[in-house]
Q: What sequence folds into this?
């Protein structure tokens, strides 16, 4: 997961652990790209915030697609206007989840991505 807010990373780590997933967390987009470049064959899903320092989520997503065009990405964002959601989906983002989200919402989103 790429998320710049530590508290949100901690909550998501707990959620993903409860759901039985192994996870890797980074604090910004360029770190997400570097980590994915090194481990992409072991990563099934990327959960990414849109508003991050250094490299924003959209630029990171485009870079991730260059590494693996069939990447599954879920955007988790506290602010994502409808037009932005449409743009993200048009670019290949599989799911947009509004923050804050509950454990059940995350589980439903992950299940939907892998159905």
A:
């Amino acid at each position: 997961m790429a998320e710049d807010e530590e508290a949100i990373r901690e909550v998501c780590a707990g959620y993903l652990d409860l759901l039985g997933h192994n996870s890797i967390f980074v604090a910004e987009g360029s770190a997400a790209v570097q980590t994915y470049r090194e481990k992409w064959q072991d990563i099934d899903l990327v959960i990414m915030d849109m508003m991050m320092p250094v490299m924003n989520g959209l630029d990171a997503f485009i870079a991730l697609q260059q590494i693996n065009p069939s990447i599954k990405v879920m955007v988790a964002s506290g602010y994502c206007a409808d037009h932005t959601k449409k743009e993200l989906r048009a670019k290949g983002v599989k799911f947009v989840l509004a923050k804050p989200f509950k454990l059940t919402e995350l589980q439903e989103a992950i299940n939907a991505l892998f159905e």
Notes: Residues 6-18 form the longest helix (13 residues). The chain is about 50% helix and 10% strand.
